[in-house]
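Troubleshooting log. The previous structure file for this entry was overwritten by mistake, so regenerating from the original sequence record. Sequence copied from the archived sheet and checked twice against the printout by T.R.
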Amino acid sequence: MTHLKSLRARRANSVFAAAAATALTLGVGVPAAASTTSEPSSESTQGSPTADPSNTPTEEPTEETGTASDTESGDHPSGESDDTSADGDDPSGTSADGAARAQSEAGDEAEEKPADEYYPGLAKKLFKKGEGHYQVPAPAEGGKPAGKVPSGLEAYYSQKIDWSADNCAAMGLPDYSEEIGRPPECGYMIAPIDAKNPEKGNIAIAVQRVKAGKLEEAEGGGVKFTPNSKPKGSVLYNPGGPGGSGMMFATWQAWDQPELAEDFDMIGFDPRGVGASMPFSECATDQQQDASRDLNPWKDGRDKAEEVFNTDTKKYADACFENTGKLFGLDAEGRKDLIKHLGTWDAVGDMDILRSVVGDEKLNYVGWSYGTSLGYRYAQKYGDSVGKLVLDGVVDPGDAEAVKALKAINARSDRFADLGDTVAQENSTGAGDKAGAGTGKTAKASEKIDLDGLTEDQKDTVNQGAGFQDTFEQFAKDCAAKGREGKTYGELWPDAFGETPLADQKFTCALGESDDPKVLSDNNAKLLQTLETADGGKGLLTGNPDDQRRITFSVGRLGEIQALYSTSLWPRLNYALNELKAGKSAGQLLILADMYDGRDESGHYDPSGAAFTNIRCTDSNSAHEPKDDAKLAQVRRFAEAYDAAAPFQRASVSPAGYDTCDFWKFKGTLPKAKQLTKVPNILVVSTSHDPATPYAAGVKMAQLIDGSLLSVAGNDHTSYQAAGGCVSDTVNTFLSKGRVPRDGDFGEKLDKPDTAKDHNGKTVNLPNKCKMQTFRTDGFTLSTSKAHVGSEVGFKVTHLDSETDYVLKIGDKTYAFTTDNGGNFAGVFSVPEGLKAGSTVEVAIVDAQGKKVGSAGLEILSKDKPRKDGPEAGGTTEGKDKPGDKGGDKPGDKPGDKGGKTPTDNAEGESKPLPRTGADVAGILAAAALLLAAGSAMAVNGRRKAHR
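Regenerated output below.
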């Protein structure tokens, strides 16, 4: 095996260090197979467990033997390393940031480290102005802006970043230059706290770049890198969260996708308030978070649990406003204003600045999980600057009101009139045996879900709970089936266990061997519930004498959720559940929980949890609602609904845990969804049994935005990178060439066909790994089917190529126009003289190569023939499309207003030119408005763009 191939094979077969007998493969987090990076200011701040490697178990735990915890190591440029964390989504359904945040006296009295202890070294060098005081300067001059630049922000869009490999080291990032053939470069990009009021001050966005070029095997071993002097541009990445660091994704993508990295610079970044970006989000201290995990009031009943958890949650919310930005000279109001601008809407503004600073006129972007929200919101805010967007693991588009607005994005949204509250729709049918929540997956263990009175955010959380339930059932049935086989760990997973002490140990499923999802879910819930009363309610020990922490119910549940993010952790989860079943320790679940929370071996928590809170609550919250008895009852209904959707993780009681966002200090700042009229095709990737972002949400989004949907058979959270093969090939081809495969099944043939259900409950069959379905159709419509010579006729094209020149031809006349970034244009043309009355002439749209891309028939009326239908203002509708279904310009917009040129008369002869201003266009614009607003136009052509 060559050196380069062996490096890539190491990525595919990377394992936890054999200090643990399990030595399980790791590929979890967001996305699945590439974790978020560790806190840059320390060597490793995520997921390095504190258990003792000397206590290596040699057999599966039983009630007689128990077990000891283990440790892991082995970071890798693929992202498959110990410092793995889940997406930040709270699985409990009771409080999105977890009922697990306490500020105990012990935590308050613990020895405190300097406030900037975990600040990146580069931030200390550049921004520290004195002890306990930091300030971010103005952007450096010397750069060259690219693409559109908003007025008043020129200095930010034209700044020069001080790129260097030394900066990466100063940010605490690992060096994989040997593996990828060139050193990554890092630096800080400066952005305004408030783009509308730049004088308020600045923040610093941490960025990493890996330059484009070809990676080859070098003679004598190693790799050879040849720079690309003319790259196609850059691709920006975000792993999700919210709060996930994306810095190392430049490195990981250069490693995982070397062919794509030949032509594009890879760009990773930490969004505002995240990771190495300054100031980053800070809430509770490490000691306070440890104490929070120790809260275990379940045995005292629902009311006591509510009191304990809700008091703790409020303290955590207050801590965010107390600590975020504290060292940057901000008073209480200043810190509040800073947090108000740490949300998604401001973050996409930073993405646009970064687009310009790296020299791209259009943004090419891949977002996983919450990163899909960043991608969509970027398209909403900066539609003219959208290049190729890939959204993998889509966050549900929203409630019925949001969907109503989003439908306008779709060129033929009348086809999807039933989009909306899918949970309510499914439950109204009486299908009480479905997990529902938008997944449509049959989850027989779940109960009928009562969603009456829940907010849309709460319904979304129930959505996610149903997704976790579905994935748990996939895990549990697989576990039970393997248990019945009677094979050893080594036989079942030779790559992971072949050389470990467990190789010859018989695999037994901790949940039993039943095929009934309800039995498996009940067994799992009962196992977790033993942590409520273990050792008098304190929880179980780790099994490691050097780590005296306790595993409470909340911690155990969190560890299990972490393992459900990736199938590669399923064997480890079974091992952890067997340890719990033995009843002496639960160190394996604690290790998984540490991965989720990003707790390192020193006890420091990655700030991604605080960023998750700041971003999510800034986007949307219900803090304005009174916390009275009615509110408490409503939150209780939510908790019960979540446990009904995800019974595998339920506690003995379902307390009403307030969300941290219920204690926020201002209303949410994320605007409602709006029309996307100028965006090109967007590729949506959705995985059939994704635990965190259910498959149905991806189908829903792809339809709403007229995008292309790549369905992937699998159980992991997201698929690009994790699945490889047909997924990577499709995404990379789309990013580099803008094309997607033809509709249908392709990729690896599955041993057993997979199925998923969309938002309407329709079964989607997946005989292969991948399936393509394109909802994007182009079209050409006229405002009338009949017209007189010399009259003006409105026309519209939709979803042709972006910002491309076309010609409309009628008779011997041609009219040139240019589409907007979404491939749309609306305008008017004059019916030329010389056309025979009573005849039907062709009106055609032709591209620069002379290829006809659309055509329509127009009947020429006699001059003295009365117009019963007022043809120029709207005629009969023919064909399958309805007027206005194609999106494009808003009613009343003037021709050319949408980013294209006003059509001009290019033919010789005496046809009058198109009117452009004043009273002579009033009637024409009225006709065009009818066309664009779904009046009575004739839809002439609608065809699928299979390769756009």
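The longest helix spans residues 456-485. Archived copy saved in two places this time.
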